[in-house]
Amino acid sequence: MPDSASRPLRVFLCHSSSDKPPVRELYQKLSAEGWMDVWLDEEKLLPGQDWDYEIERALDNSDAVIVTLSTGSVSKEGYVQKELRFALDIALEKPEGTIFILPVRLDDCERPRRLRPIQGIDYFPPERRELTYARLRRSLELRANALGIITETAESKPAPVKTTKEASEVESKREISQVVKHRSIIKFAPGGHVIYTFVKIEFVEVPAGKFVMGSSDQDDEKPQHTVDIPYDYFMARFPVTNAQYAAYVKAKAIIHPVSSWEKKGDHPVVNVSWDDAMAYCQWLNDLRRTELPSGVVLRLPTEAEWEKAARGTDGLIYPWGNTFDKNKCNTDESGKNDTTSVGAYSPQGDSPYGAADMVGNVWEWTHSLFETYPYETDDGREDENVSGRHVQRGGSFIGTYQLARSASRYRGDPNFLDFVGFRVVVAPPIP
Question: Which residues contact 160 (CB under 8 A, 6 or more apart)?
């Protein structure tokens, strides 16, 4: 088999900045396949790098170029036209019949003259996107097969039992995240986010990298600072529900913390202490140990992991943006006066990564002790053997919009748990 079998298919996304939403959705779908390395400027370009040089180098190294077209992009000068000319020049060097340039229309625009001989597809209207994506994926799969690149999908790959050999194959954190993806069932949420169902729980991926933590609004959120999380991780899409917690309660022969929970099976569980949440995670790890790849566990998210999953890398005040909207979360302003079903405010209230209910509904335990900022992983706040109050995040249905900010943090009180729950994360174990 050619050497290329051990590498992913390199795909370049050529687009206009005005087309970011659909292009971002396309990027997430393609990346979720697990056998493609997709080049998108906002993901790949680093501060200080030369745009022209890096883009031309990426195009030159690409196995396929997806050219997204819209009324706005085809009618103005700029990087789209420049990238297209460069890609067409590269295409002339390819053997006849090679799938290299794939035109994708985002609206009913006129295709550039030089692209008209190449079969394209229409990524609109929204209700046809899944069908269109399947055709686009098939073309990329044919290109990968021609290069000898393996395209085994997450849907078709079984979840094997962990072995010593596998442990040696997932030495890097990036490889570990790929194993999780390959063992997941993948679907796309209404908002376009990629959802990974792993160990019977829905997760969203949060990529490694830096984000802005804290704010300048409250003393316990100061100073606002940059935190670098050096690994990919998977945040549960929803908080743990009453029904999910019931399986743990049954296994441990204990009493469910929510009376008549059956009437609210899809609501987040409440009345759980930090110790209860930790015990649930331990039980879940024991239950799913043959499904977990070496190097990751199911646990409570650290305070930093939680905040990044809630606000993304743009420092959003709320998961959806910088303006409060009572129609996007269950807080006091919404007037529900009770918990709501998980996902009731999805996708409109989702975070940039697709996590739902990150603010409002119930406070959520994190793994971290409540300490002053800046956040440091090795200053003792993640030491499970140290006693103290742990951080709760997200606000609740009885809290105001101020507590529903992504940066808001609360020193958890073990005596007040009526509206406190938690969610889990798939991530490396805490050192």
Answer: 166
- Chain mean pLDDT for the chain: 89
- CA 15, distance to chain mean position in Å, is 22
List of domains in the chain: 3-146 (3.40.50.10140), 164-427 (3.90.1580.10)
> Per-residue confidence at 115, pLDDT binned at 50, 70, 90?
confident
Q: Can you spell out the DSSP letters for 347-406?
A: TTT--TT----SSSSSEEEEEEE--PSSP-TTSSTT-TTS-SPEEEES--TTS-GGGGST
Tell me how far apart the alpha carbons of residues 411 and 369 are, in angstroms, rounded to a whole number.
Answer: 8
163: Cα within 13 Å, side-chain hemisphere: 6
Strand partners, 9: 36
Residue 405 burial (10 A CB sphere; 0-12, 13-18, 19+) = buried
Q: Say what angle helices 51-61 and 79-91 make with each other, to 10 degrees.
A: 30
HSE, CB side, 13 Å, CA atoms: give it for residue 155: 6
Q: 80-90: per-residue pLDDT in tens?
A: 677 778 888 88
* Token couple for 153: 């999908």
